[in-house]
Amino acid sequence: MAKIAQMLHCIPATSICSERLFSKAGLIYANTLRNRLSGKTVRQILVVKANLDKVLLAPSNNIESDSESEDNDNED
């Protein structure tokens, strides 16, 4: 049990993630249109921004390969 706890609660080797989070928070609070947001709203925005790169919101851009295959079909 202790080994599992050590694995789950270990300190990360770098602080890049936390630095990015502080940077994003600074940008939100520095924006004059957003400086009146509640703490809860800012936390929600930061969660979305931090996890946005982990979620695929749009299909991959295969337009170029699709158009090439259509051109090849038309040549036959």
From TrEMBL:
InterPro entries: HATC_C_dom, RNaseH-like_sf
Residue stretches spanning the membrane: none
HAT C-terminal dimerisation domain mapped to chain residues: 2-52
Molecular function per GO: protein dimerization activity
Coiled-coil stretches noted in the UniProt entry, renumbered to this chain: none
Protein name: HAT C-terminal dimerisation domain-containing protein
